[in-house]
Design a protein that fits this description.
A hairpin with a 6-residue loop joins strand 5 and strand 6. This protein has 2 domains: 129 residues, Beta-Lactamase (2-Layer Sandwich); 80 residues, no CATH class. The strands form 2 sheets. The protein has a 7-stranded antiparallel sheet, with helices on both faces. A two-stranded antiparallel sheet has the order 8-9. The longest helix has 18 residues. The chain is of the alpha+beta class.
Length: 222
């Protein structure tokens, strides 16, 4: 029998910014929740929004969160009035979901919280669940490279432009790169994501990472 309480406690120990958590199945049945988080009446609404793929916000425990990312295996939302964030992760087989409330002042939460929650969710169904995960179709190498190169031209809505006479770096683009460097340096950032997907044997993500590595390697070779 799965010890949900122990899994949540380990999550909070390894990632202290995870304040509260709830674990539920796809029908909305609560399997476990921390004592100080009353979200029973909100669960089905959150689940409906998550599975819809196009909701813009959810409410939990009287707080409204704007949805930033929403995929079958991942859910990320934030409160615009600085009351915290929501991170959701599905087990590898997709049958059980974990949603956590992240503290408002959590540093680097957008990059660090999901890998921590996803690791915890993976422990719910155990390593044997990998075989139940549907085979993912991933893009052809050229298509991935084209997508990656497109991100050079547009990042966060800011178009990269270089004047012929006097080259200048777009300050918004420079800010993105500085954030990226911070994410790379942080042991709970990019490396945490990569370690998680390696542990899960995620062929789609690993294939794309390998392509990006080759592109970066070629870019900076003398």
């Amino acid at each position: 029998m799965v010890n949900y309480k122990k899994i949540v406690k380990n999550l909070q120990k390894n990632y202290s910014d995870a304040a509260e958590a709830v674990i539920m199945d796809r029908s909305g049945k609560i399997l476990y929740t921390t004592d100080d988080w009353n979200v029973k009446s909100d669960i089905k609404g959150v689940l409906s929004s998550w599975t819809s793929g196009h909701a813009q916000s959810v409410n939990m425990n009287g707080i409204r969160y704007s949805i930033l990312q929403m995929e079958p295996e991942r859910f990320i939302a934030t409160n615009r009035k600085k009351k915290g964030h929501l991170i959701g992760a599905a087990t590898p087989d997709g049958n059980i979901l974990m949603v956590t409330h992240i503290k408002p002042k959590a540093k680097g939460w957008f990059h660090m919280a999901y890998p921590a929650v996803a690791r915890a969710a993976a422990k719910i169904s155990g390593p044997s669940s990998k075989s139940l995960k549907p085979k993912m179709e991933f893009k052809h190498k050229n298509e991935v490279e084209e997508t990656f190169m497109e991100d050079y031209s547009v990042m966060g809505g800011a178009t990269v432009s270089v004047a012929m006479e006097k080259p200048q770096v777009d300050p918004i683009l420079k800010g993105h790169i500085e954030e990226f460097l911070e994410w790379v340096r942080n042991p709970q950032g990019l490396s945490n994501y990569i370690s998680y997907y390696l542990e899960q044997d995620d062929q789609d993500k690993i294939s794309k990472l390998a392509i990006i590595y080759r592109i970066l390697n070629r870019m900076f070779q003398p």
